[in-house]
Amino acid sequence: MRYIYAGCVVDSAGVVARAMDRQQYEGFATMHMRMPMSSSSLPIQGHCSVDNRRVTLRFPFTGIEFDLPSIPSEQTAADFDFLIRSQKGRDMTVTISRLDDLSAYIGYGREDGEDHAVLTFVFYSPDSPLSRLPRI
Questions:
Q1: Domain contains 3
Q2: Which CATH number covers residue 122?
Q3: Is residue 9 part of a domain?
Q4: Which of 33, 50, 92, 124 could form a disulfide with 104 if both were Cys (CB 3.0 to 4.6 A apart)?
C-alpha cells in the first residue's frame, strides 16, 4: 500500500520517495497471441505504464508486470536486453531501445525459440510528441 504525505510517496515498508522525483511514462502495448491449431497470431491491443522501474502492461482479461533493470532516463544505454519469465513459464528476452527524437522507448519481448516478438510496447514521457496521440 502506498500513500502520499507532504509531497512524498510512502509505501508500507516506510520507504519514502519524493513524488516529483518519480519517473512516470504512459504508452501502448500489443500482445501477439497464437491461435490454437493455427500458425497465425492475433494482435491484442493494450495499455503500457511505467512507474520508476515497474512496467505494467494491461490487456483485456490479462496483464503483465515486471521491473526494468534501471530507471529509464536520457543517460540510459541506447539498447539493453534482460530476461523475464513468460506466462507459459518460458524465459522471455525483452529488448528496450530509446527513441531520442520522440522522448520515448520501444520494447520487444521474444520467447526462447520464437523468431517474432510476442510483446511489443512503447512508453513515453508526458512531454513527448507521442503524448498528443488520441487514446484508443
A1: no
A2: 2.40.128
A3: no
A4: 124
> pLDDT tens-digit profile of 56-80?
999 998 899 999 988 887 776 678 8
Confirm if 72 and 48 have CB atoms less than 8 A apart. Answer: no
Task: Specify which residues 64 forms β-bridges with.
Answer: 57
d(CA 83, CA 76): 18
- The number of C-alpha atoms within 13 Å of 82 and in the hemisphere containing its C-beta is 11
Tell me the C-alpha to C-alpha distance, in Å, between residue 68 and each of 65, 84, 136: 10, 10, 26
pTM of the model: 0.77
Q: In degrees rounded to 5, what are phi and psi of residue 21?
A: -85, -10
**Residue 13 located in a structural domain:** no
Separation CA 130–CA 103 (nearest Å): 8
- Residues for the chain: how many in total? 136
Domain count, the chain: 1
Are the C-beta atoms of residues 81 and 91 closer than 8 Å to each other? no
Domain coverage including residue 126: 23-132
Task: Determine, yes or no, domain membership for 58.
Answer: yes
